[in-house]
Amino acid sequence: MKKSLRAGMALTSLVFAAGLIFSGCLAISDEESEEAETTSEISAGSINRAAVSYSGTSGILGSITSATPTGSGLTGVKAQGWLNSAYIVWTGSSSSYTVTCDGQAVSSYLTRKIGGQWRCDIPGLAKGNHTIKVTSGSSYLSATVSVASHDRTGFAFYGTITPGAYKADGTLKDNAVVLYVNESTKDKVSLDVVTSSKGATTTCTGLQNILYAFKKGYDNRPLCVRLIGKVTDFATMDNGDIMISGSSASKPLSNGLTIEGIGSDATAYGWGIRIKNAQYVEISNIGFMMIDSAEGDNVSLQQSNKNVWVHNCDMFYGTPGGDADQKKGDGSLDCKKSTYVTFSYNHFWDSGKCNLLGLSEGTTSDLYITYHHNWYDHSDSRHPRCRYYSAHIYNNYYDGNSKYGAGACLGSSLFMESNYFRNCKYPMMISMQGTDLFAGTSSKNSANSTFSKEAGGMIKAYNNTMTGTYYFIPYGGTYSGADTTSDFDAYVVSSKSATVPSSVVSLSGSNKYNNFDTSSIMYSYTADSPEDAVKNVKKYAGRIEGGDFTYTFPDSADKSYDVDTTLKSKLENYTGATTAYNEASSSESSGGSSSGSSSSGESSGSSSGSSSGSSSGSTSSGSSSSGSSSGSSSTSTVTSAKLTADSYSTGTISSDTVYGDFTLLATSKKNVKISSSSATYGSTSYKNAWDLQGGADGVKPSYRAFKVTLAKGDILKAVVNANASRTLQLSNGSKVVSSASVGTSASLFSYNATSAGTYYLYSKSSSIRVFEITKTGSSSSGSSSGSSSGSSSGSSSGESSGSSSGSSSGESSGSSSGSSSSLSISASKTQTGVGTRSRLNEISSINQIKNAISVSNATQLKAALNEVVSGGAIVLAKGTYSFSETITISSSNNGSSSAMKYIIAAPGTSAEDVILDFSSQSLSDFNRGIHLFGSYWHFYGLTIKGAGDNGLYVSGKNNIIENCIFVENRDSGLQIAREKSSLSNMSDWPSNNLILNCTSYNNADKTGENADGFACKLTAGNGNVFDGCISYSNSDDGWDLYAKEATGSIGVVTIKNCVAFNNGKLTTGSSYGNGDMNGFKLGGSNGKVPTAHIVSNCIAFANGHDGFTDNGNGGSLSLTNCTSYNNAKVNFNFYRTNKGNFTGLVTGSPNNSDKYGTSSVASTVSKTLYYTNSKYYWISSATSVTNGQKNVGTQVNAPSFKSTSLPTANSSVHKNLRNADGTVKLGDMLKPNDSTYSGASFSTQAASILGVSLKTN
Q1: Contact 698, 732 (CB under 8 A)
Q2: Mind listing the pLDDT tens digit for each residue in 1093-1117?
Q3: The dihedral of CA 780, 785, 786, 791: what is its sign?
Q4: Dihedral angle sign, alpha carbons of residues 921, 923, 926, 928
Q5: Beta strands at 98-101 and 128-136: parallel, antiparallel or unpaired
Q6: Helix, coil or strand: residue 964
Q7: b/e per residue 327-358 (b: at least 16 CB within 10 A)
Q8: Mind listing the pLDDT tens digit for each residue in 499-528?
C-alpha cells in the first residue's frame, strides 16, 4: 500500500501543479432508483462467535494439466483439466460417441460438436488425475489430465454445508439429481418432485416448474442444473427470469441447488436468475447476455438468502432499461437483504453497474459478503456500492474503470485488501467526504456527490496497488484543500491485523468501522499479492478458459462509460458455439434428468421424463463396447441406493412415492404408513418402518409394494419384521422369484438378481414392516467370452442388441432361489490384473460381520482392543478419533492363522473418512501412534496421522495392514522393527507382515533425516512384504531398508507394485537439507550387512536424490520390471551391489549415469535400458556390468512414453492413484511407447484376491 500511496500522491501533485482542476460538471452520479422491496428484512440476531466454522478451503488447490489424446481411429485435439472439471476435444466422422472418465460413463448430453470438432466436458471431478476415454465402434482415444479444485473461500462457506449440489471436494452430493438443459431440452426436462409432507410426488416439466415444486420444501435432494450451449427464453419463466425461491424467509429452499454452465460456451441469453428465500445456492460458469427480463439483472439476490456462491460467470450487457444509467442494462450481480455470500472469479465486460450491495436493510448486523478475484474489465461503477454490509473485497482486478471502484455508504464496513487498480478513476470512496466531494479537484463540493448524499460507511485498506490515472486520499495523507483526518477515502493500514480506531468515523453519519475482519467471524484465507491476483484473475475469472467470447477493448474505454457499440453488436449477433449434439443422447431421457453421483459427476440412477425406445431414462454406469471380448473380470460391490425409514417423518402415504431408485406403490385406499416401530438388526437400531399393512394385488402390484430396477448381479436387501409369521415375496412382474419367512425379530432378506428387470417387494398377506432397503451393484468374478454390441458394463434400463455367453464363478451374498445365504469371503481367488487385495472390501454392511464391535470414539476403540475375539472385528464409524498417548496392542494380544483380529473402517467409508489423530502428542522418540506388538491382526481403511514419532510401529508377525494412510507423523509413517532391544535374534524380530495398498506422505521429523514413508529397517525379520503401496513427499526416503553393523543384516524384504515420488519435499513445498530423499533406499553400512532384497514392478520419479539405490547394501539385490524417471541424482544407483540381478528396467529423463556392479564385481543386467556417459544402451540379454562400464549393449535413442503427465503431490493421491479395489492405478503414465522395453506396468484391478478369516453372517 505504501508504494501505491506514493504513486497516487505523486499523480495528484502533478495534476494540481499543471493547473488541471476538474470542474463539478464532471461529477459522477450513482443514483439508486430501485423501489424498496416490501418483504421482511433479514433478522439482525447475533452470531455465536465461538461456534464459527467454514466448509470451504482457501485458494485454488492442486494443479491443472493438459494432454494430447491418443488412440486409434479418432484424432485427438486436446484434453484439459480445469477447476473440478475436465474436457476432451477430438475429430471424427461419427455422430455418436461414448465417453468415460475413470471408467465411469459420462452423460452423452455433455458431448456436442463445436465447429468441426467434438467436445465433451466433465464436471464434478475431485482434484487429482483423471483418465478420459472416447469410443465410437472400434475407434477410441484416451488422455489423463490433472484437475484442480475451485477456490472455496469467503463468507458463503459459513457453517458446515457447502453451497450448491456439490461437496467441498467438487463431487456431487449424495442423492443429487442432475438436469441437463440445452436449447432442445429446455422445455422438455422433467422430474418427479416430492410435493407433500406425506411423500406424494408431482411430475413437473420445464425448469421453472421444477423449481416451483422444490419451492414447497418437501424434496430434500440436492439439485444440479447443467446448462449446455446457448439457451434462450424458456416457455415458463418468472417475469422473464429463472427464479430460485423457498416458500418464505422462515421456510427457505435449502436442499442445495447448483445452476452451472458446461464448458466454455454455456450462455443464458435474454434471461437472468433471481434468488430469494433460499440457502446453499451456487451459480457458476454461465455467460449472461442481453438480459431483457422485467428485473433486468443478470443475477440478483433479492431477499432472505444465505450461503450463496456466484462464481466464474461472464457478465455482459443487458438490453437498455428506461433510466439514463441503464443503457448497458441494469445490475450485473446485485445483493440485497442476504448474508453469507461470496462473489468470486466473475468477469464483468464493460458493465455499467456491477455490484449493488444493500438497499433498505436498516441494520448493519449479520450482513456479510466476500468479493474476490473478480475482473472488473472496463466496467463503470459499483465494484461494489455498499450499504450496511460488512464486505471483504480482496484480490480483484480493477481494469480501466471510468467512474469509481468501491463505495461505502450507510454504515457499511469495507476491507479492501490486495486489489489491483489500473486506471480506475476513483479506486475507493466514502459517501459525502474525500474524493466523493473533491472529485479530483482542490475544492470540496457536495454537488459532486456520487451516492445520493447518503451517510458514509468506512473503508479499511491494506496492500492495494494503484497504477495509471487515479485519485485517492488516504487518512492522514496530504491533499490540497482537505483535512484528511475527516475528508479521506480509506484508512490505510500497514498490517492486515491492524484495527481501525473507534475515533475514526465517517464525516456524514459518524459511522465507525466494525473491524469484522479481525473478529472471530472471519474465515481462513490467503490473499495473493496484487500482482499475482491479476495473473490468477486473467487465468481463471469467467467461464472455463475465459469462455468462447473474445473482445479487445480500445484504450479509450478506460475513460469512457458510453456503450461500446462494437461490443454490443457482437453480443446482439451471438449465435453460440455449439453446432450439433451427440446422437448417443437419444438413448437417454429426452428430458435430460438423472439422479445419483459418480466420479464423473454423472448419476446412474433413474430419471423421469419421456424416453426413447424401452429406456426408462437411466444412464449406464459403465462404458459401452462393440465387438468380441474374452478374459477375466473383477468382483466389486457398490451400494448404489439405500433407503431407511428413520430418515422420514411418520405419516400415511396414499400415492406412489419416489425415493431415489425405489418407488413405494400406494393408493388412497391401499395406503402405506410410516410408523414408529423399534427394532435392532446386528448393531443397527431402527425407530421407524414402512408398514405395508397387507398383501399386494399380485405379482405386478399397484399398491403396498416397493418397486425397483435391478441389473443382473445386483443384490437387493431389506431389514424386515412382522407381528406374527408372514411371507415376504419378490416378483419380477410375471412370477415370484424369491420368498422368505418373516417373524417378530428383525431379519435380513437378500436376493441376487439373475437377470435385469423391474422387481417388486411385498407381503403375500398381512402386515410386514420394512425398516431399511438397499440395492447393491456388483459384477461377477470369473471368465466370460462372447460378443456384444451396444451393451454397457453397468446398470441400464434401455434395450441392447447382441448376445453374450460365458460362465461365471465366484461367490455372492444371495441366491436366486430366494433363500438368504451367508456372506462367504474366506476363499482366495485369482484373476487377470496386477497387485493384490483382500476380500474385506466385499463387505457392504456391518450386519454381515458375526462378531462386530462398533465404535465411534477414542475411548470405545481403546476398550475394544482387549475385547475383540479372533475372527471378529472392531468397526470404526466415520470420524476423527483423537489420542494424546500411544495405543499399544501387546504381544499377548493375538489372533491366529485361522482367525485373525480385525480393525476396519465401517463399510461404505474410505480411509480418508476414519482418522486416528495423534497430533496432540509431543515430539519424542517413543511417542508412536500405535505399537502393534501382537500378531495376526488385519488393519483396513484407516488414516493414522500426526504421531510424535512413527505413525504405526509393527513388531508382531503375520499382520496385514491394508488400505491405510499414514500422514504428517513425525518419523516414518509405518516402520517394521523389533519391540525391544533385548530381542537380539532375527527369529524374534517382526516377520511375514504384509503392507498392502497403503499410502504414506508428509511424514517429517525435526531434522528431516529419519522420517520415511515406509521403513523396514535395523531389526526386521524375513518375509515382510510391501505390495501396492505409494510413498511420496516424505522428508527422508520413500522406502528405507537400512541395516547397521551393530545389529547385523535384516531379513529379505519384498517390495512390489509400489510407487515412490517427490520424496525430500513435502506437499507444502518444504524440504530438509539432511534428508536422503531417495525413492527406494535398499540397505546401508557400506557392504558390511548385505541382504538380497527383492523389488519388482515398481516405479520411482521426481525424488530429491536417487530413484532406486543400494545405499551401500552389498547383497545380491534383485530388481525386475522397474521404471525410474527424472530423479534428481541417479535413476538406478547400484555401484556397491555384489552380483545383483537387474532385469526389465527402464530409465527415463536421467540426470546422471545409471550404475550397476562394483568396480570389481559385476552384476547381471538384461532386457534393460541403461544410461551412461550421456548415452542410452539397450542390453537385451544377460550381460555382466561393472560400475562405470561404457558401450554395453546397443546404443539407442532416448525412450518416449505414452504419458509423462505426472501426478501432483497432494492429499488426494490415495484416492486418485488407486483403482476401486485399492490397487495402484497409473494408466499409461511412464509406459514406454516401444513395447521392447518393459518397466513397471499397472492394471485396473488386482490379480490376487486374498480370502479372509473374518467370521461373517
Answers
A1: no
A2: 999 999 999 999 999 999 999 889 9
A3: positive
A4: positive
A5: antiparallel
A6: coil
A7: bbbbbbbbbbbbbbbbbbbbbbbbbbbbbbbb
A8: 999 999 999 999 999 999 999 999 999 999
Q: In what order do the strands lie in the sheet with 299-303?
A: 242-245, 273-276, 299-303, 333-335, 356-357, 385-387, 406-409, 428-430
Do you know the residue count of the chain? Answer: 1257
In the chain, % of residues over pLDDT 70: 87
Cα angle value 754/759/762 (rounded, 5°): 125
Query: What is the spatial distance between Cα 115 and Cα 543, in angstroms, rounded to a whole number?
Result: 19
**Run of H or E including 537:** helix 530-540
Instruction: Give the strand pairing for 390-394 and 413-417.
Output: parallel
Q: How far is CA 961 from the centre of its chain?
A: 26
∠1021-1023-1028 over CA atoms, to 5°?
A: 120
Residue 633: what are its φ and ψ, rounded to 5°?
A: -125, 155
For residue 309, the cross-strand partners are 282, 342
pLDDT at 727 over 80: yes
DSSP string, 816-875: TTS--------S-EE-SSSSEEEGGGG---GGGBTTEEEE-SHHHHHHHTTTPPTT-EEE
Cα separation, 379 vs 353, whole angstroms: 7
Helix, strand or coil, per DSSP, at residue 110: helix
Taking the C-alpha atoms of residue 105 and residue 625, their distance in angstroms, rounded to an integer, is 12
Residue 490 β-bridge partners: 474
Region of residue 683 (left: phi > 0; alpha: psi -120 to 50; beta: else): alpha
Q: Which residue has the cell 448417443?
A: 584
Tell how many helices (H) and how many strands (E) occur in the chain: 7, 94
Active site residue 1006: no
**Catalytic-role residue among 173, 336, 945, 1081:** 1081
Taking CA atoms, 353 is separated from 187, 448, 1022, 1055, in Å, by 32, 19, 74, 63
CA-nearest of 420, 408, 341 to 377 is 420
From residue 559, how far is each of 23, 470, 569, 1000 by CA, in Å? 16, 11, 21, 56
Sign for the pseudo-dihedral over CA of 844, 848, 852, 855: positive
- pLDDT tens figures, 1033-1072: 999 999 999 998 889 999 999 999 999 999 999 999 988 7
- Quote the CA–CA distance of 845 and 977 in Å, as a whole number: 35
Distance CA 1232, CA 1239 (A): 8
